[in-house]
Design a protein that fits this description.
Elements: H1 2-77, H2 82-100, H3 109-118, H4 124-130, H5 133-148, H6 156-172, H7 183-199, H8 202-213, H9 222-240, H10 256-289, H11 293-313, H12 323-331, H13 340-353, H14 362-380, H15 384-403, H16 406-417, H17 423-440, H18 445-460, H19 467-470
Helix pairs in contact: 1-5, 1-6, 1-7, 1-9, 2-5, 2-11, 3-4, 3-7, 3-18, 5-6, 6-7, 7-8, 7-9, 8-16, 10-13, 10-14, 10-15, 10-17, 11-13, 12-14, 13-14, 14-15, 15-16, 15-17, 16-17
């Protein structure tokens, strides 16, 4: 009798355990499926945006490259055509921006940073002035016209604003029943994916997002950021092939005395970049004081003719984004730039960026730093591998001086050349350049322009606050 009761109790507990196990498994499966569905739905906007960004980045890069080639072909046919194509390109590029999308001017990175700070439901219309379909079209057309006209601008900053615009558009069309997706994180992830696709530097995109674009906690958006950068990068690679932006320059280990020269290159590059940024801002302030379009046109005509005259009488290195110059000094036997070359690059960057047309500063900044490193190497008659190290250090230093993002600058140059053996030298150059740039100005070009954009938008909507202000 007692054995039967014990057996019944045992069976009861076994049935109870089986039932609890079965019910628990059903609840787990239901929860897991629900969580998986939510995760997939949340990721779809990021994945689709990244694919679109990869496609646009490749097409834009192809158009930009061929616009540069056409410009050099025109100049090579008859050099005096410089005096025709430069004012035409500068004025037309400026007019396209002014007429159709004023916030599509310049690099695009300050606009993206401003959009991230302003991102909120009540400020969506203001963000749409900085990002959107019209911005994409105007950015592409205006920058192509400017580079075809000989402007010393790049496509990387515009690609970032274009990418942020793609993600902003997708965010606006997400249905109300869809899982909530952060507008701020969408724009941020789009910008990082754009950098990854533009330079083929996925790690640089991640570091750029963390260091330059945002101060919010990384864990909140890391999965979306990683997957977006991977998808955008893979899409670009499938369409354009796996490539390094600047190939594989030969480098060598440095002795202590040569390492000291890196510090010199970085100091000159960082200081020069900060001075260039201040001059750009001064020119932009001066342009705002011009009373009418006639004065604006006269200013553009004058600055474009300065570039044309310099290119005609002194050096054509003042023209274009400067990628060809970086490749020239890294991969040919002509390693040491004349002193006039860094000056020409900085002058071309300054006047082109200040024109009011669309065009970035990333590639022009890298080329300016490359020529500084090349010229300083000539002072010491360094051999080719040592000169290449100085060129790369100059690139990192000058980009740091403009952006004040030392780790982004070092990682981007590292990834575009695959020279891991000199990562410590590049990071040292970035930090030295950062210190010397801050001697000139405490704020970066991007930060000052971002603040200007927010003030302009606030003046048209007095109640408008950026998220950084609202949190104070």
């Amino acid at each position: 009798m007692q054995n039967n009761q014990a057996s019944d109790k045992k069976n009861y507990f076994l049935r109870l355990l089986r039932l609890l196990h079965l019910r628990g498994k059903q609840l787990f499966d239901r929860f897991a499926n629900k969580k998986l569905k939510h995760g997939i739905l949340t990721a779809i906007p990021f994945w689709s945006g990244s694919f679109i960004v990869g496609v646009i980045a490749v097409i834009y890069a192809w158009l930009f490259h061929h616009a540069e080639l056409l410009m050099f072909a025109i100049v090579g046919y008859h050099k005096w055509l410089l005096f025709l194509i430069l004012p035409t390109g500068f004025i037309l590029s400026w007019w396209i921006v002014k007429k159709f999308s004023p916030y599509a001017s310049g690099s695009g990175i300050p606009q993206v940073i401003a959009s991230i700070e302003l991102a909120a439901p009540e400020t969506d219309k203001k963000v749409s002035q900085l990002l959107g379909l019209r911005t994409i079209l105007v950015k592409i057309v205006s920058s192509l016209v400017l580079v075809l006209g000989g402007g010393a601008v790049g496509r990387e900053g515009p690609t970032i604003q274009i990418s942020g615009s793609v993600f902003h558009i997708i965010n606006r069309f997400i249905p109300k029943w869809w899982p909530r997706v952060s507008h701020k994180n969408m724009i941020l992830t789009g910008a990082a994916a754009g950098l990854s696709a533009a330079f083929n530097t996925p790690l640089g995109g991640i570091v750029f997002a963390v260091e330059e674009l945002t101060k919010i906690h990384f864990s909140y958006f890391k999965t979306a950021l990683f997957t977006a950068i991977i998808i955008a990068g893979l899409t670009a690679q499938q369409l354009a092939g796996s490539y390094l932006y600047l190939g594989y320059p030969q480098v060598a280990d440095l002795r202590f005395s040569e390492f000291l020269v890196i510090l010199l290159v970085a100091a000159i590059a960082g200081f020069s970049a900060a001075v260039m940024s201040k001059v750009m801002l001064a020119i932009l302030r001066f342009k705002k004081k011009l009373k009418n379009n006639k004065e604006q046109l006269l200013f553009l005509f004058f600055t474009s003719m300065v570039i044309a005259g310099f290119a005609y009488f002194f050096s054509e290195t003042i023209l274009s984004s400067g990628k060809d110059l970086m490749e020239h000094y890294l991969f040919t036997t002509d390693k040491h730039a004349a002193g006039i070359v860094p000056f020409s690059r900085i002058l071309g960057n300054t006047l082109s960026f200040s024109s009011g047309g669309a065009g970035g500063i990333f590639a022009p900044a890298l080329s300016s730093g490359a020529t500084i490193g090349s010229a300083v190497s000539g002072w010491f008659q360094f051999a080719a591998p040592h000169t290449n190290v100085m060129i790369l250090a100059g690139m990192v230093g000058f980009l740091t001086g403009v952006t004040r993002s030392p780790f982004t600058s070092a990682i981007v140059v590292l990834e575009m050349t695959d020279r891991h053996s000199i990562i410590l030298q590049l990071m040292t150059a970035a930090l030295v350049a950062y210190v010397f740039a801050r001697v000139v100005s405490g704020k970066s070009l991007y930060e000052i322009l971002k603040n200007n954009y927010i003030k302009e938008l606030q003046s048209s909507a007095p109640g408008l606050q950026s998220t950084s202000e609202a949190s104070k």
